[in-house]
Design brief:
The chain is an alpha+beta fold and 191 residues long. The chain has one domain. Helix content is 18%, strand content 40%. It is built from 2 helices and 10 strands; from the N terminus they run ααββββββββββ. It has a 6-stranded antiparallel beta sheet with strand order 1-2-3-6-7-8, with no helix packed on it. Strands 4-5 form a two-stranded antiparallel sheet. A hairpin with a 2-residue loop joins β9 and β10. The termini are far apart. 21% of the residues are buried.
Length: 191
């Protein structure tokens, strides 16, 4: 019986060579998105003031709020960590922002649909100033704040509660959005 050794040898060599080479990774858009999501989650977990995103509706209109949520950590907040009569980024890290899908009214004043950074000016007594600024993507909060970009300023009276909230929150609830931190409750009316 006659055998074909050269063909058989070549086939075996090809199989051995193919099995020894490293497989090439195929990167799909799904794997890239999953990797980016994991990186963002790891970054968020490592932040001392976690990045928070709240979405909801006010009077049937979509609204989104994003902010860094600092904790009290035993510190004196009002008039110290957050000085009175000075623009505060209303959160930590990058500027907090509000995204309105449709035109709304804030404390009775019209605010067009769009994204706005959210700042406040705390006062020792009386109403606080709440500011919506067109420069919404400020990575260093109030350090980049420029008053000339203010779109709307309204006065809001804070409520001082007996209970204490450790981490800052900005919630979408009646009467619009409500900022809470330590004993502060700042309800901003939005329709």
């Amino acid at each position: 019986m006659k055998t074909n050794h050269p063909i058989l040898s070549a086939a075996i060599l090809a199989i051995v060579f193919a099995s020894c080479s490293e497989p090439k990774a195929i990167e799909t858009s799904e794997s890239v998105v999953a990797e980016e999501t994991m990186e963002a989650a790891t970054e968020a977990e490592s932040r001392p003031s976690p990045l928070m995103v709240k979405e909801g509706q006010i009077a049937g209109k979509a609204i989104k709020v994003q902010y860094g949520s600092p904790a009290v950590k035993g510190r004196d907040l009002w008039g110290d960590l957050v000085p009175y009569n000075v623009v505060w980024r209303t959160g930590a890290n990058e500027a907090s922002y509000v995204d309105l899908a449709e035109d709304m009214t804030v404390e009775g004043k019209k605010l067009e649909a769009g994204k706005y950074s959210l700042f406040t000016i705390p006062k020792e007594t009386g109403a606080w100033t709440v500011i919506f600024n067109s420069e919404w993507d400020l990575e260093h909060g109030h350090f980049q704040y420029d008053e000339k970009n203010d779109v709307l300023r309204v006065d809001v009276t804070p409520v001082w509660e007996e209970s204490t909230q450790e981490s800052l929150s900005i919630d979408i609830e009646n009467p619009g959005i409500v900022i809470r931190w330590e004993k502060l409750k700042l309800p901003i009316t939005i329709n």
